[in-house]
């Protein structure tokens, strides 16, 4: 449903948020290892997140990526998805047809619309704070072992 870049962007944002709560900045290398993504690809994703003011990049010996603690709760998954994949996930056809709408629906249009609307609700109501805290408390995990 999401592009690989978007999946990595969400995972990276959660990892950065968790570490930001602990007062730590994380390096691109740490992020790419944690989310199991190639470093060069991770760097491009991080650039998009910085450009969209979702994460901060701090240069220098003690640099890395962070999110201001008071901003973590305000960042919704929908912001990350939009920064990386745009808003096509809310508008695209379930079968990938160029023309598919209420007036000219594809065979799965109405069923897919329900799923898409539910996904939109989840993305707009889920913030990084709750996901980072789930990781921190061990309720959820970013890595598979």
Automatic annotation (TrEMBL):
InterPro entries: Tscrpt_reg_Rrf2, WH-like_DNA-bd_sf, WH_DNA-bd_sf. It comes from the Bacteria. One of its GO terms (cellular component) is cytosol. It comes from Oceanihabitans sediminis. This is Rrf2 family transcriptional regulator. One of its GO terms (molecular function) is DNA-binding transcription factor activity. SUPFAM superfamilies: Winged helix' DNA-binding domain (SSF46785).
